Amino acid sequence: MAKTKYVYVCSECGTTSSGWMGKCPGCGSWNTMVAETTGDQPPVNKRIAMVSTGNKPMPIPTVPNQDVERFILDMPELDTVLGGGLVPGSLVLLGGEPGIGKSTLLLQVAAVMGQKYGDVLYVSGEESAHQVRMRAERLGALIPQVLLLNENNMDNVMIEARTAPHKLLILDSIQSVFLPDLPSVPGSITQVRAITHTLMQYAKENNIPVIIVGHVTKEGTLAGPRLLEHMVDTVLYFEGERYQSFRLLRAVKNRFGSTNEIGVFEMQEDGLQHFSDPSSVFLSQRPEQACGTTVTCVMQGTRPILLEVQALTTPTFFGNPRRLGVGIDYNRLAIILAVLEKKLGLALSGQDVYVNMAGGLRVDDPAVDLAVAAAIASSFRDRPIDKHTIIMGEIGLVGEARAVSQPERRMKEAAKFAFNKCVYSQSSSVGKKQLPLDAVAVRDVYQSFKSLGLI
């Protein structure tokens, strides 16, 4: 009896090794080497090699310009995140925690595509056909244009996909299907990589969009090799608390649009409903005249969104005070605390500091720095900030208030929600025309705190 041979493959970067290693020699990740059995692999040109078309190199100015016609899904939040709609021939990867609403969203997409453009092939490898029908009945998606295939064999899936033309292929999920001529189990690195190549080739050759559902790890990242994210055209993350109704859809990679856009949905009995005005969602539960809360405006792609910043400071009873930030980068929080202690003399070294971006939004915009600093000072000094004031500006290491992008658009968004005062950095480029609210330009953190009544 022949002895089974193994090769160890990194689940992050795909590096192979003949022996197990605690640290991947390719990407340096720890405990990511997974054993895979070796066997007769299918010929490369059978699975992943692209057929030569005889194309020759040409000067890039001579490449014909073609406008991309997108499929409009009649879900404004999803269309915005995708960059204006679903692009034919694109490969989209959707990830999220179990129960977050991935299958619900895709079944709604399938229903819209089926009614507007033609047949949709929905492949379910995890749920039975009866379970999918029950969900479709609840969502109002029982239409004959949605063709349901309950299959785990990828060869059978591709046979059905090539038999009749479809306008969209949905695979739920990539970890549940397998290629029978590969020795690995479903969901393994080898299987995921080969299946993704197969779907990519199918999408590009037939100009049909393909949407793949991917599982996530306990750390919140997509399961499988990092190569999976590099191969697809768009990577979407579905975020939110499973036991709350609001969901956030974020694009972390998009070859056909911006990666800063987010979509806001609410899970209701009849499916996911979009919010065209997400600012109202994030401000809906804001407390009245509470210490440690401020409002700022962040830019998510082309859209300004008002966001509540909450902070809490309490005396620490241990040697090292605790700093915790939810929705904000920990390093940014550490810089803000250092500036407050050095430049304004706030004795925060003996305080535990907790900062939260209300609503579950993760923020990378540096314009939130001044609002975070003001919320911390408000909690520390137990002084509330006027609820009709919005704060925005980046903080430098010497305490200066640095410029923010598109300040006028942010102010207009704040004025729609009855904010009448804006504290912003004076280095921001603001036009001479009439602003929609009382704008207070500040030079540094000290001036901003003085205008807010914190000093």
Overview of this protein structure:
The chain has 455 residues and is an alpha/beta fold. Strand 1 (6-10) and strand 2 (16-17) form a beta hairpin. It has a nine-stranded mixed beta sheet. It has helices at residues 44-47, 76-82, 102-116, 129-139, 154-163, 189-206, 227-231, 278-282, 330-343, 369-381, 407-415, 445-452, and strands at residues 6-10, 16-17, 33-37, 91-96, 120-124, 146-150, 168-172, 210-214, 234-239, 246-254, 262-268, 271-274, 293-300, 303-315, 323-326, 351-357, 389-392, 394-395, 401-402, 421-425, 438-442. Helices cover 26% and strands 25% of the residues. The longest helix is centred in the middle third of the chain and has 18 residues, at 189-206. The chain starts with 5 loop residues before the first strand and ends with a helix. The protein is globular, with a radius of gyration of 26 Å. Helix 9 (330-343) packs across helix 10 (369-381). The relative contact order is 0.09.
